[in-house]
Specification:
By secondary structure, the protein is an alpha/beta fold. It has two domains: 336 residues, Aldolase class I (TIM Barrel), CATH 3.20.20; 58 residues, no CATH class. It is built from 17 helices and ten strands. Strands 3-10-9-8-7-6-5-4 form an eight-stranded parallel beta sheet. Strand 8, helix 15 and strand 9 form a beta-alpha-beta unit. Helix 5 packs parallel to helix 6, helix 11 crosses helix 12 and helix 14 runs parallel beside helix 15. The chain is globular, with a radius of gyration of 21 Å. 50% of the residues are buried. Keywords: Flavoprotein, FMN, Oxidoreductase. This is L-lactate dehydrogenase. GO terms for molecular function: FMN binding; oxidoreductase activity.
């Protein structure tokens, strides 16, 4: 994948050949190739709270199903005898060329999947040249992951909290660690109703998980100097002692006391969302950075038009993987209308991408690239960095084969002519 243009058999046939030759020796892939098999294998590997957080959605998870149904409803239409033996998978975004139209979506609390968390994902992405979008809710600080990735491409996903000095500090750190773009998530100004987590009474942040960006931020840490436990703090119980152990372990990692970690968890949960965020606020973010700004969570065409008028640089059509509103429209369903409304702005697609054929469908409907989320988290859970790499290779391999079988010569060539 280091070369944008496939030479010889291309990444699709190369990946197939590798798997089949390994199979002759009795070796099977590290992770299941089938997306549902991958999910089930991760479920067997992970404990209940970890799988609930990584795999769960809002309400009855009808939005998650809507995302999958949207892809099922789009039908590809191939052309024959097009001479597409050589295929160019590369895409250009904001002046950078990437080897395939696949980026790794920002996923929080990856320590739930594997101890190496974001570091393993960053190394996997770097090995294949795929951009990794760091999460605000990462388990490892952005500086450490950037160092592990070397010069490989990375973006950053930003939550705009009520503590604006922390938000501004994040932006400065993002620029310093070589990010190529900032992705502002708009659909999480409130935390969605997620029954799987609620039934287990589990919010990872209260245990100190997924707070690495905050615990290494000077402005956030300055808020922890005065430590006061809230009145009516529960008496110790086995569950609270377990939580305290988790907080203490994260405190040792980041040089904070247990009391400071309790304050950190409380301050984070009170400040990380900002329900009053409005369009006019974007002008301040534009003043803070020269990096391209993409708005993630756009579904309505009018919001796409507003984003263009406000001087934003790109849009990510997304419903947060079905984690925020139950019964929301599938992301792919809205993609064509958002693309039309966005004008010249690049539009990416997130939520529901599982296969290389899904990538082709999204691009035929106007997306410039897609974000891959849960599948790589499952690969991480099963085999760490190597598992993430296999998931990426599988998706890109299927995309390459789909491209050739459609009769297309390049990813950029995909369009309505490839749809029934």
């Amino acid at each position: 994948m280091s070369q944008p243009k496939s030479s010889g058999p291309g990444p699709g046939r190369s990946r197939q050949t590798q798997i089949f030759v390994d199979g002759l020796g009795g070796t099977r892939p590290l992770v299941p190739v089938d997306p549902e098999g991958l999910r089930k294998a991760a479920r067997r590997k992970l404990d209940a709270p970890a799988f609930a957080y990584l795999a769960g959605g809002a309400g009855m998870e009808r939005t998650m199903q809507a995302n999958l149904d949207a892809f099922s409803g789009v039908k590809l239409l191939p052309r024959r005898l097009c001479g597409s033996a050589s295929r160019d998978l590369s895409v250009e975004l904001f002046g950078h060329t990437y080897p395939a139209p696949v980026l790794l979506a920002p996923l929080g609390v990856l320590e739930l999947a594997h101890a190496e968390a974001d570091l393993a994902v960053g190394r996997a992405a770097a090995a294949l040249g795929v951009p990794f979008i760091f999460s605000s809710q990462a388990s490892e600080p952005m500086e450490d992951v950037a160092a592990a990735m070397g010069d490989s491409p990375r973006w950053f996903q930003l939550y705009w909290g009520t503590d604006e000095e922390v938000t501004r500090s994040f932006v400065r750190r993002v620029e310093a660690c070589g990010a190529q773009a900032i992705v502002l998530t708009l659909d999480t100004t409130l935390l969605g109703w997620r029954p799987r987590d609620l039934d287990l009474g589990n919010l990872p942040f209260l245990r100190g998980q997924g707070l690495a960006q905050y615990l290494t931020d000077a402005h956030f840490r300055s808020r922890l100097d005065t430590v006061q436990l809230p009145a009516g703090t529960p008496r110790p119980s086995p569950a609270l002692l377990k939580t305290a152990a988790s907080l203490a372990a994260h405190g040792r990692k980041f040089g904070l006391s247990l009391a400071q970690m309790r304050t950190a968890a409380a301050h984070f949960t009170a400040s990380y969302t900002r329900p009053d965020l409005q369009w006019d606020d974007l002008s301040r973010l534009r003043e803070w950075t020269t990096l391209p700004i993409l708005l993630k969570g756009i579904l309505h065409p009018d919001d796409a038009r507003e984003a263009a008028q406000r001087g934003m640089d790109g849009i990510i059509v997304s419903n947060h993987g079905g984690r925020q509103i139950d019964g929301e429209v599938g992301s792919l369903t809205m993609l064509p209308r958002v693309v039309e409304a966005a004008g010249d702005l690049p539009v990416l697609l997130d939520s529901g991408v599982r296969t290389g054929a899904d990538v082709a469908k999204a691009m035929a409907l106007g997306a410039r690239a897609v974000l891959l989320g849960r599948p790589y988290a499952y690969g991480l859970a099963l085999a760490g960095q190597a598992g993430v790499q296999e998931v990426i290779r599988n998706v890109v391999a299927e995309f390459d084969l789909t491209l050739g079988l459609l009769g297309a010569h390049s990813a950029r060539e995909l369009g309505p002519q490839h749809l029934a």
